Amino acid sequence: MKLNKTKVIVFFIIIAVLAVAFWWGGNAPGLQGWNVSTDNSKELESRPGGLKGSMTAEEKISLAKELTNCSSPGVKKGDTDYSVSLGMEIDEDTGKDRYLTDPVPEGKPIPIEPQNVEITDKELTCAMSVRCDTILDNINWLDKEKVELVPEDGIIFKQDNVTFYEGESVFNVLIREMKKNKIHMEFVNTPMYNSAYVEGINNLYEFDCGELSGWMYKVNDWFPNYGCSRYQIKEGDVIEWVYTCNLGVDVGGYSALGGDL
Length: 261
Known about the structure:
alpha+beta, 4-stranded mixed beta sheet, DUF4430 domain-containing protein, transmembrane helix, Transcobalamin-like_C
């Protein structure tokens, strides 16, 4: 009797081990639909939350904070000589600046540190919009209690010309316009990157629609590779805040991961 009991226990242990191997082998529901590879030239299929279970909570938050507001479509790498010529200080050992920012592509503006900016009373004009239409295509991934927060057309703030003051950043304009139009917004300051990080707009937060979801911004169709409070806007700029459900793949910011669009 004791021998048979031992066999039963061993049998269940084997079954448990096989189940764990099956889960981590890529057949778990959270991993279906993603082609996870170290070869960044391979295109990722778009499935929000597709990396469930493969990262710790700390790793997910770190990845989101580094990339959600910072990506660069259309380029694989910035131009060091160009960036340095404009005043960006790049560490020769790391290839980044003191706030862990890579060089920017040629023709793009370098980051401006908020503490070094002088804001004048000169009024200028730019365009801005905020939208979350990608959620409409992935509504089943959204927390049920937040479905009613998503506009039917996905537009939270329709593109409009707004006033800003010389020297202000993308973040300055966003926070003022959201307050002016009584649209909820929440952010945190990230000293490591010397920038504000936008966690939520209209009560829609990072991770609300999949574990790779969150807010990103682009200016003149470019997703900057640095935070929104380091981007100094100019007359006529077009600022777009967009919600991604899978780390930029669905909004054109995929090359933040090393891809090429």
